[in-house]
Design goal:
The chain has 366 residues and is an alpha+beta fold. 23% of the residues lie in helices and 28% in strands.
Length: 366
């Protein structure tokens, strides 16, 4: 209910309370204006600079890169990338599986080229709004750190939110950042990968087999019910499903071809040392034979959407070019032989197709 001027004059305590409220509101407004004017003045006078001047000349010194990733109420997850003896980067959390070299280079160069474009808040209570609250404080920031061989820290920064629609013609954009241990935040220009899991850092190179090379495929090899698909020459586009049971017919060339070429462009979701997994007798095998005599055997284990495979490459007896096939087999074994790979769910389904799934009763339209 509105208070009249006459009531204010007659009620001294009420009058004092109203005056105090007005003065408080004026003071708050004045402080907001002062802060805004001050920040605007700082931004107007600020000249963009490198976040880490001279870092580009020290990248050869970097022997370890870590990403500390926010995991909400759980402890932060750390991804550690280490430079191996051959100069190749490895993922420590995956028993030194080869890392994506291009990703690591993008991190090194990207951080060295970060430009502090505009200052933002220096108030810790506002860090969360920019995604710059540290992961150990239940924040969403990603901590990126570089170390030299002695373990000395070269870079320690927190990367936060990426403002929308800030990518320029060069593919660079804006990101909120702050140096670890400092409250001052910045809007920076640049780009580097903000990969959020160790498996995303793994080198995707796996099995390089093209469709043209595949001659014969045997699913469930070594069992009483193998599924064999083959073609006589590279000129034949479709694979023939062999030994179809009486009264059944294939579900069509696209279905059979899909199973026969499931190894083409095959990727993986994760990798662990093969000797840390159990591959019991009777595990499903898929054998792929090429026209030049290379043979790849995938032995699988697991289930429920988590199918893992180990790979062995060898050469078929009587291969037309045994020397070339052996060289390729040796290269594959050196790259993947010590590892077990978590297969994408779709690929796992293709590699374990049975005769019942590839055929149906003859005469039934499906």
């Amino acid at each position: 209910m509105a208070v009249s001027l006459q009531e204010l004059r007659a009620n001294k305590p009420l009058r004092n309370l109203v005056v105090l409220a007005v003065l408080t509101a004026v003071a708050v407004a004045a402080s907001i204006v002062a802060v805004a004017v001050q920040e605007r003045g700082v931004r107007t006078q600020f000249t963009p600079v490198q976040m880490y001047p001279g870092l580009e000349t020290r990248l050869d010194e970097v022997s370890k890169v870590t990403y500390q990733l926010a995991r909400g109420m759980r402890a932060p997850e750390t991804v550690t990338l280490v430079r191996g003896d051959q100069g190749k980067w490895l993922v420590a959390e995956r028993k030194n599986y080869p890392a994506r070299q291009d990703f690591v280079q993008k991190v090194l160069i990207g951080v060295s080229e970060l430009i502090l474009y505009e200052p933002r808040t220096a108030r810790p209570e506002w860090h969360r709004n920019l995604g710059l609250l540290a992961p150990e404080d239940l924040g969403s920031a990603t901590r990126v750190e570089f170390f030299d061989k002695s373990g000395k820290k070269i870079v320690s920064m927190l990367a936060g939110k990426v403002p929308e629609q800030t990518v320029d013609a060069r593919g660079e954009g804006m990101i909120y950042v702050r140096r670890d241990g400092e409250n001052q935040t910045w809007l920076a220009r640049g780009r580097f990968p903000l990969v959020q899991s160790a498996s995303d850092w793994l080198d995707p190179a796996f099995l390089d087999v093209s469709r043209d090379e595949i001659r014969r495929v045997t699913l469930w090899s070594g069992t009483n019910h193998p599924v064999v698909m083959s073609r006589a020459s590279k000129d034949e586009n479709d694979f023939t499903l062999e030994d179809i049971p009486k009264g059944r017919t294939t579900r069509g060339a696209p279905i059979v071809n899909g199973a026969a070429t499931s190894i083409v462009d095959l990727g993986f979701d994760d990798a662990v040392p093969a000797d840390t997994m159990s591959f019991p007798d009777g595990s499903p095998n898929a054998v792929f034979e090429t026209f030049d005599g290379l043979r790849l055997t995938l032995t699988m284990t697991g289930g429920g959407g988590a199918l893992w495979a180990k790979v062995v490459a060898d050469v078929e007896p009587g291969a037309p070019d045994a020397a070339a096939a052996q060289k390729k087999a040796d290269e594959i074994n050196a790259r993947v032989g010590a590892w077990a790979y978590k297969l994408p769910q779709t690929a796992g389904g293709q590699l374990t197709q049975s005769m019942d799934l590839l055929t149906h009763e003859g005469g039934i339209d499906q």
